Amino acid sequence: MAYLRRAATALILIMQLFTLSNAHNITKILAKDPDFSTFNHYLSATHLADEINRRQTITVLAVDNSAMNSILSKGYSLYTIRNILSLHVLVDYFGAKKLHQITDGSTSTASMFQSTGSATGTSGYVNITDIKGGKVAFGVQEDDSRLTAHYVKSIFEKAYNISVLHISQVLTSPEAEAPTASPSDLILTAILEKQGCKAFSDMLKSTGADKTFQDTVDGGLTVFCPSDSAVGKFAPKFKALSAANKTALVLYHGMPVYQSLQMLRSGNGAVNTLATEGNNKFDFTVQNDGEDVTLETDVVTAKIMGTLKDQEPLIIYKVDKVLLPREIYKAVKAAAPAPKSSKHKPKNAEADEDADGPSADAPGDDDGEVADDKNGAIHVMVSRSSVFVLAIVCLCFGVLLM
Ligand SMILES: *[C@@H]1O[C@H](CO)[C@@H](O)[C@H](O)[C@H]1NC(C)=O
Ligand SMILES: *[C@@H]1O[C@H](CO)[C@@H](O)[C@H](O)[C@H]1NC(C)=O
Ligand SMILES: *[C@@H]1O[C@H](CO)[C@@H](O)[C@H](O)[C@H]1NC(C)=O
Ligand SMILES: *[C@@H]1O[C@H](CO)[C@@H](O)[C@H](O)[C@H]1NC(C)=O
C-alpha cells in the first residue's frame, strides 16, 4: 500500500515536472534547419530565446541566413540586434491558418520590442496584411507601413502556444536600429554607488570582479546587492578569505541573464551565477515565500528587499544578506540545528535577520543530503526510495510512450 501511495506521489511529481518544464525550446526547433542557423544563433546570443521559451503564446518570424546578412553587414552592436530581432517575436499566436484568415485582411500586433518597453508609440507593432494572390505581407507599423517582408512557410506550429514562421526579409525600423544608450554605457559600479550600494561596489572593485560584471551587462545581468549594513557586518569574515574565495564570493552575487522579479517569481529553482564554472556549481535556489522572493544558498537565506535599477538588460536587486556559497562555507558551517528560521518571523524581526554569518543563520533542515538531491529544475526533497520508485515509473512512462 505504502508503495502504491509512493508511486502515486512520484507520478504526480513527474506530472508537475512536465508542466513546470519549458513547453517549447526555440533553439531546438530552429536547429532542425541549418538555413536558420544565424537567426537561431542571435536569438541565443541576445537571450531572446529565453524570453521566447518562457512565454506561453508566441509567434516567431524567422529569417534565413541570407536575409540575416542585411543587418549583420551593418556592424550593429548585439544590443541593437536584440532590438531588431525582438520585432520578430509577436506576443500572440499566428499559425499559417490564422494568417490567411485575418479579419478585414489586415491587423497590427505587438512584438516583444513593444512589450519590453524599448519602443515608443506604436513602433513595436507589426502590421500583417493579406495581399493579392493569397500572399501575406509583414511590416513594422508606421503611419504608412511599408510591408517589406512576406510569408514564406510555416516551420513549426503548436496551437496556440508557439508558431514559427519563415518570412522573407528582416523587419526593421529606424527606431529599432537607433543607437540606443548601449548598456555598456551603464557603469555598474557608478550605478551601485548612486543606489546605496557603496559597500558592495567597493567589494567588486577590490576583487577586480567589477570587470566580469561589466562585461556581462550587454548579454543580460542580474545583480543581488547586499545592503551596506550587511556588507559591513560581513567585512571581518570577508577579509579572512583567500583572494580566490573573495572573488568567487563576489561573483556569486551576479547571474549572467536578465531576470525580472516576475521571472524570478515564476522560476523557483536552482540558478547559476557568475561564479559558476565547471564542477564548481556556485548556484543557489530562488524560492517564493508568499510575496517574498528568497535566495537559498544552503548557508544563508537572503530576501529580496527591493529593485534598485531595472533597465533591461540590467537589473539590480537589494538583498538583506551577503550570499554565502556552500562551496566556500559549507565546510565551516555550524552543525547546531536552529529552528526553521526566516520564514515565519514577523516583518519587524528583519533587523536581526541582517546578521549574515553562517552560524547566525544555519538552517537546521537544510543539510548536505538535500543539497545534493537538488535537481536543478525544482527543489524536490525526496528520499532515496522514492527516487527509486520515480525511476521505475519513469521507465514505465518511457515504455508507454514507445
Ligand atoms: C534547448 O535546446 C538546445 C539545443 O538542443 C539546448 O542546448 C538547450 O539547453 C535547450 N534549452 C532548454 C532550456 O532546455
Ligand atoms: C497595414 O499597412 C497597410 C499598408 O500601409 C495599411 O493599408 C493598413 O491599414 C495597415 N493595417 C493596420 C491594421 O494598421
Ligand atoms: C498553451 O497555452 C495555454 C494558454 O494560452 C496555456 O494554458 C497552456 O499551459 C500552454 N501549454 C503549454 C504546454 O505550455
Ligand atoms: C577558501 O578556498 C579554499 C581553497 O580553494 C578552501 O579550502 C576553503 O575551505 C575556502 N573557504 C574559506 C572559508 O576560506
Count of DSSP-assigned helices: 19
Spatial order of the strands in the main sheet? 2-1-7-6-5-4-3
Count of the separate structural domains: 2
Q: Biggest β-sheet: count, sense, barrel?
A: 7 strands, mixed
Bound molecules: 2-acetamido-2-deoxy-beta-D-glucopyranose
Which CATH-level-2 architecture of the largest domain?
Roll
Which term fits the overall shape?
Answer: elongated
Helix and strand content put the structural class at alpha+beta
Q: Level of helix content?
A: 25-40%
User: In CATH terms, what is the fold-level topology of the largest domain?
Assistant: FAS1 domain
Q: Count of DSSP E strands?
A: 14
The N- to C-terminal Cα distance equals 28 Å
In terms of DSSP E residues, the strand content is: 15-25%
Low-confidence segments, given as residue ranges, are 11-21, 333-402
Query: Roughly how many Å is the radius of gyration?
Result: 24 Å
**What is the overall pLDDT average?**
79
State the name of the first-level CATH class of the largest domain.
Answer: Mainly Beta
**CATH homologous superfamily assignment of the largest domain:** FAS1 domain
Subcellular location: Cell membrane
InterPro entries: FAS1_dom_sf, FAS1_domain, Plant_FLA
Family: Belongs to the fasciclin-like AGP family.
Membrane topology: Lipid-anchor; GPI-anchor
